[in-house]
User: What shape does this take?
Amino acid sequence: MERVLTAKGAATRQRIVEGAALLVRDRGVANVGLDDICASTATSKSQLFHYFPDGKADLMLAVVRYEAEQVITDQLPQLADLTTWRKWQAWRRRVIQIYDAQRAACPLRALTTQLGTADPATREVVDGLTDTWAAYLAAGVQALKDAGEIDPRIDVQKTANSILAAVTGGATLLQSTNRLSYLEDALTEALDNMRRPRNQYVAGGG
Assistant: This one.
């Protein structure tokens, strides 16, 4: 059973998690020790173990959950309202802005590279993030389909998955090459592909 923290306790715990997340993004989990986290967050070892009884493993799982939340939160409110083509374009601009600003200091990179996904608990969080992200995108594709803006024969889930793959793949290449064009081109192409079936459908008269 999780302990119920006071407002002050919750704020302290959150400060530790956020401080640890920044260190992991910068150095990688293997190069971040408890002493580093304590120094960075002005926290004593006794405080740290009070909130994270299992030490680093416990804290790193909290960091994983925090970073997964950040990936989605950074895209809101645009991600939750993909109901028109104009709003899809606003979301595209937001995504590019986010990853251009973050570059290597990216929550997604921290999850997939720095923290790794070999641990079952981490994998569960990353899977949950992927499912949540894809669900938002699928809702947006369905909204365009219902509005008649894209071909009614389009596969909503496959389209959402391809857009998600464009973002994550483009972001990964951005982080490894420092070239934003990979993300810009991949996401633009994925969104354009979503609309192409309608043009062919109308032109063919079928």
Summary: Residues 198-206 have pLDDT under 50 and may be disordered.
